[in-house]
Design goal:
Low-confidence stretches: none
Strand content: 15-25%
CATH topology of the largest domain: Rossmann fold
Helix content: 25-40%
Distance between the termini: 51 Å
CATH architecture of the largest domain: 3-Layer(aba) Sandwich
């Protein structure tokens, strides 16, 4: 039985506790909004990429897209992140390509290696890391990773990510009765809402968008993650052959492994991209720290192994058996469906940025 199964089964008992927790978080928000709790106010535009609940909304891919955009504009971007399960040697900790996943956390390390022109700073106290980065790194833009509830840093734009189920079975189910960290009133702080969903799935959500979010008057954007090519872990992310088909690179059966919040989505994405289902999918907990024994056990299948980029960055310090062949994929964030707005997310963001930069 999963955590969600237990929460739904005990809903009559847990719902009052969820309402109390939601009221507590609302009181905390008012303390920041009225200045009774101190906060750091950055001198440059700051955008928060966060969510209302936990797990699998796509914050890191959206942050990755924003870093791509910033680099294309020759803007110096700094990501402020707590680095979930990270153990940095100092705080604040400036992540670089030589950092380990143990020091930086898997997602911060992946972002730092993918974006050498930007900076990623790990610190659970983001008001401290923000003040340090503003003085030491002179950014043009701050991006707050998982920052929606982190009111100790003032932001100029809140991008709030929802899962499709947040609009249906999980709507307004606050901890401990569900996965939400705040109640639905918190969504009034959102400047835009993003949902990781295919165009078909997004279209099916429209009635819920109208009933749940219509009163907010904010744009809603759908996005998806599309693999572009496979490459060997430890090799170059640049495809050696743009015409090579994934099935040809794997030459038959393969094993999939993942330590992410939504493993079923990973399996569907890989199956569609590669063209065949994995022989086996090893599902590890989100942010799992892989061991040599994990790799040996999977390599014993005698098949090529495929993992997500988030998992791949955690493998560099693990001794590999000679039989192990591990591939990962390059992912691109694609924006498509929209609701309550005529323009696409990239155009909306350009307009928003111009407003923030000129303020």
């Amino acid at each position: 039985m999963t955590v969600h199964d237990v929460q739904h089964h005990l809903s009559p008992l847990l719902s009052p506790l969820g309402r109390a927790y939601g009221l507590l978080m609302a009181h905390r928000r008012r303390l920041y909004e009225t200045g009774r709790l101190r906060f750091f106010s950055p001198a440059v535009p700051t955008v928060s990429v966060g969510n209302i609940g936990w797990g699998g909304t796509g914050k890191t891919p959206v942050t990755d897209w924003l870093l791509d955009w910033a680099e294309a504009q020759a803007l110096r971007a700094v990501v402020l992140t707590r680095g979930y399960k990270a153990h940095p040697p100092v705080r604040p900790y400036l992540v670089d390509a030589a950092s380990t996943a143990e020091q930086a956390g898997d997602e911060p390390l992946m972002l730092a290696r993918s974006h050498p022109a930007s900076r990623v700073v790990v610190d659970s106290v983001r008001s401290r890391s923000g003040a340090w980065a503003q003085e030491a790194l002179h950014p043009d833009l701050f991006i707050m990773d998982d920052g929606f509830q982190h009111q100790a840093v003032r932001r100029h734009c809140d991008l709030v990510l929802l899962r499709p189920e947040d609009l249906t079975t999980e709507w307004n189910r606050v901890i401990p009765s569900g996965s939400w960290r705040e109640n639905a009133d918190a969504l009034t702080r959102a400047d835009a809402i993003l949902i990781k969903a295919s165009p078909e799935a997004f279209a099916g959500l429209v009635p819920h968008l109208e009933s749940r979010l219509g009163h907010l008057g904010v744009p809603v954007f759908g996005f998806s993650l599309e693999p572009t090519h496979l490459y060997e872990v430890g090799g170059s992310a640049t495809p050696a052959s743009a015409s090579a088909r994934p099935a040809e690179l794997l030459c038959g059966d393969y094993v999939l492994f993942s330590g992410v919040g939504q493993p079923a989505q990973v399996e569907t994405t890989m199956e569609n991209f590669i063209g065949t289902a994995p022989t086996r999918h090893y599902r590890f907990p989100d942010h799992h720290r892989f061991t040599a024994e994990d790799i040996r056990r999977m390599a014993d299948q005698g098949l090529p192994m495929v993992c997500t980029p988030k998992d791949a960055v955690k493998l560099s310090d693990i001794p590999m058996p000679d039989s192990a062949r591990i591939l990962t994929c390059a992912l691109k964030t694609r924006f498509g469906s929209t609701w309550n707005v005529a323009e696409s997310f990239p155009l909306w963001w350009e307009t928003t940025w111009q407003t923030l930069a000129s303020a």
